Amino acid sequence: MSTDVPSSGGGVSGFAREHTLGVAGALSAVALGLVFAVVGGLVPSSVLPRAPTAVLDAIPTINALVSLAAIATIALGVRAARARDFEAHRRFMLASTGLFAAFLAMYLYRITLVGTTDFGGPAVVEGFVYLPLLAVHILLAIVCVPLVVYALTLAATRPITDLSDTAHKRVGRVAASLWIVSFALGVVVYALLYLVY
């Protein structure tokens, strides 16, 4: 399968190529809007089928494992790019994106049906460790969405040979770094919430 796309033309791909920043911005706004709507309680739980309690209880652990897998695929994708193995880089970054989408879908599904989980540890740990870690994790996750979407939009609308003329490498480097930190902090938050306390 060729990774090249036409350098010009009409249709959706031509529009996305000519307006990459706008398309990435619109996709990011829709994605973040959905997340904020769910977290803000604007999506009623009655619109979703309810999974068994055991499944809902397993989602945080599954998401921690998904996060660890995503850390690995992002790191491998960065390594492949440095080795100029762009086909492997593409596969790893698409896998990372798929893992992130799965994480987000499960997280939002559980939030809609169950709500958030209260921290069960001491107030001092909650105030000085848990909440700051959670805040940084959430902030980085929000910042990563437009960066990742922009890097993906650039990659999806251009041949590999043209990506060096774009911001893909610079944006991708920042996005990958922040993405790894966000996933890692998410695992730490999970451990504090479900294992330690």
Automatic annotation (TrEMBL):
Residue runs in coiled coils: none
Domain of life: Archaea
Protein keywords: Membrane, Transmembrane, Transmembrane helix
InterPro entries membership: Cyt_c_oxidase_su3_a-hlx, DUF420
Keyword Membrane in record: yes
Keyword Metal-binding carried by entry: no
Gene Ontology biological-process entries: respiratory electron transport chain
Pfam families documented for this protein: DUF420
An example molecular function term from Gene Ontology annotations: cytochrome-c oxidase activity
Spans traversing the lipid bilayer: 21-42, 62-80, 92-109, 129-153, 174-196
Any one GO cellular component localisation term in the record: membrane
PANTHER family the UniProt entry points to: DUF420 DOMAIN-CONTAINING PROTEIN, HYPOTHETICAL MEMBRANE SPANNING PROTEIN
Name of the protein: Putative membrane protein
Organism the protein comes from: Halobaculum gomorrense
